[in-house]
Amino acid sequence: MSQGSGEHQLKYMFYPKSVAVIGASRKPGKIGHEILRNLIEYGYPGKIYPVNPSADEILGLKCYKSVLEIPDEVDLAVISVPAKFVPEVLEQCGKKGVKAVAVISAGFGEIGNVDLERKIVEIARKYNMRLLGPNIFGLVYTPSKLNASFGPRDVLPGNIAFISQSGALGIALMGWTILEEIGLSAVVSVGNKADIEDADLLEFFGKDEHTKVILIYMEGVKDGRKFMKVAREVSKRKPIVVIKAGRSERGAKAAASHTGSLAGSDRVYDAAFKQCGVLRANNFEEAFDWARALAILPPPSGENVVIITNGGGAGVLATDACEAYGLKLLEMPKDLEDKFRKYMPAFGSPHNPIDLTGQASEEQYKGALLEALNEPRIHSIILLYCQTIITDPEALADAIIEAYTQAKVKKPIVVNFVGGVECDRAMRKMEKAGIPTYPTPERAVSALAALHRWARYAGYIKQT
Ligand code: COA
User: Fold this and answer.
1) What is the domain count for the chain?
2) Model pTM?
3) Which atom of ligand 1 is nearest to the CA of 80?
């Protein structure tokens, strides 16, 4: 059957009116039980139907012997029964008219059971159901309050959609985003990508109003051409960040045996990503650093960057990083130097980096920042602060937030505070106010550089 309505069917996966958990175990700690618990406790407002032939009730919900017995339509079925029972369960889902299925069960292509995997795809196609997985930890979509996974429960809402081909790493990163207070619109475990693959999800999230950035952990793509075609279009509207594992030859072999992906030559991937505007990150720290900036900052309208700092050393490190990551530091015109001189002592430097010196006060920072924000020849700002006894980090954070909200024009700014716990608190405050912050100058620069690369690709920065 045609998969032409595939994108439409995906809506049922993320906006289901009802969810069945097939293989909802009675025993706490078992996967089917924990998925059901996550669905209930994360606050999914639709109907939840546990399915288990040996139970009458689980976690206070009436249980059904089979999906066919449910007296209502079922949009999404999460399947957590041993692999050999999956075809039969899928047939029942098809007959029931289920629209989308997420197959948690492992034991398919990844261990050589390709025929079984092919069979479940055939059944899904026969009934026009979209199939996520198999071999996945589930999915989360925060706008629908849907946590149909056996990962951590309290995923924070936000606008980064995170797609993971790795199960354990995906689950771990879900927990890590909670710790780091990074908000997500979605977490999708794609596993073996037997039916739904990255390109389908790119199409969906490319149009999803709740998603601003799409972040993919990938070991390989099944259909490279399709991925590139979709990525090229989506990248013009929304940034796509990819962590493509298996850079080394041995890593590529490990990826092949992990999810059964054809890893392909790394250089081919590199070139393909560049061509279609995909931002390739080296590791997950970098990927989330970039995604946080891409999710909240406006795109720059030009290349000119300034660094504002109270520490010469931090300024030099940031300058080196700008060189390394391809950011252009503005050659400061004389009239601008004079403007910035107002916010520093005589021994400060109004060149770029603008060094307000170690005795810089919050007012001086605020003045210099407002000057930069309102100056049309400056397109992006890197603001650095090394903790001193002169300036209280939290008061400085307030001053920065004030300047950012008062500025007439919205432009990208990344912030790095270096110091103790007070700096950490101050950075979290700024982050909440929509200003991305980083623990080192290099990470701040790297995030801004990713935003510039994307802005070039998407045409916000005109190429000369
Ligand atoms: N329909 C509905 N429920 C069924 C069923 C059917 N056809 N057949 C069995 N069940 C019930 C069982 O009775 C059991 O409930 P109970 O614990 O109350 O008795 C429940 O479904 C689960 O079945 P069980 O046979 O106990 O399997 P399990 O929970 O040990 O394992 C999987 C099921 C899917 C979790 C397991 O096979 C698996 O694949 N694990 C790996 C998952 C994984 O790693 N995924 C990738 C992560 S990234």
Assistant:
1) 3
2) 0.94
3) 34
